[in-house]
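Question (not urgent): is this output format expected?
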Amino acid sequence: MPAVVVSNGGDVPEFEGRITIYVILCVIISAFGGLMFGYDIGISGGVTAMDDFLIKFFPKVYEKKQHVHEDNYCKYDNEYLQLFTSSLYIAALVASFVASRACSKLGRKPTMQIASFFFIIGVGLQAGGISVLMIVFGRIILGFGVGFANQAVPLFLSELAPAKMRGALNICFQLFITIGILIAGIINYFTSHIHPYGWRLSLGLAGVPAVILMLGSIAICETPTSLIEQQKLDEGKAILKKIRGTDNVDAEYESIMAACEIARQVKDPFRKLMKPSSRPPLVIAVLLQVFQQFTGINAIMFYSPVLFQTVGFGNNAALLSTVITGLVNVFSTLVSIYTVDKAGRRVLLLEACVQMFITQTVIGLILLIDLKPTGTLKEKEALVVVILVCVYVMGFAWSWGPLGWLIPSETFPLETRTAGFAFAVSSNMLFTFVIAQAFLSMLCHMKAGIFFFFAAWILLMGLFALFLLPETKGVPIDSMADKVWKQHWFWKRYMVDEDDEPIEKIHPHKT
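Got this back:
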């Protein structure tokens, strides 16, 4: 019999196993899907601040940029420039639902390979772009790659990891996103000095992590859950023994088999998602994506060179400041890897809300008081803004950044896992698109008020995490319904037994 630990108010089976070298290899290779995404987030903001890129594709923006005295907050406000950044996310939104089917029918590993193929094609179109239409089309193809990768990689990591280490291993996806952002910032800093084609080099190097993922995925396995789901039972059990480093996997194997049997009875997982019992993980998954984007993080990551130029830094200094925030992002994500399976998910989310609320508010106050439409901040004030941005990024990087991907990937039952996570990915892409498309216009019209806008959202997020988000650390991925949702003061009302009676009516003694 498996050992038992106490978590979330009930007995939770802890299956035997350890972290093997092979699992670490699988985690690193698959996480390159996150590096692809992060590199694109970081590179697009830097490229759109390069004069050579603007002269070729957005000459009106370049001309407007030369007249800084007109309005600090509005010099980059151009819907086509925003479309270059944001078009990727609409494509990723659509692709996530196709990727959901691919994950179920083909497996997690082939879905990651498809993602790398799309990414390589999109990179070629962008780096070789000769017109706005061509580079936007390239970003749409990249969007399909992002949609497939963001669907497959977190699921792959959550299913591969033992429950006691699932948080740390899954956050490797977010860690590689932050590494990608950092690498992009460093590359942009150097390619901005290469005229007139530095921007092509920046965009073209995005193909490197995609090639690594495509070739490296040959060496990694499919998850046991996916193999068993596809009726490859012997192969699934063999892989489970390999990744756990033990032959004593019968209890976990039976648990996966039971989950797969339930999943096979569900012919339409998207319809199943509309049932009351699916509402808790679905609502949590979607709201986490909405809140993750309305922290304002992508506004800062996409447009940090633009933002730092707005507060008075020159082009090179702005790109260097972006590298600094990128370093903070990476090291703070390492903090999350270390603490998430010890402190838990909710503690990190709540602490970060306080940290991000304070920093966004103070940044807003500094800009409101001292940054007028013309002129710049004093050097010391500009430095304070950079420090506050770093503290803000720090809080996000060990909380809402990685946990926005981790929690949805671990809370859906197998029968709705790929479909439910598709809603999470598509919601993330939708609201990333909204922020990417709207940020420059919002900055132009709201000016310093944009930081108060995001601060208000952070306050709402904190209340959500405090009252509606259950703790999921240490709970096996296929035990969430019994050990998490049926124990929660609010969500238990949606959990029903086979006769469709609410759980609290059948078992009124449960709390």
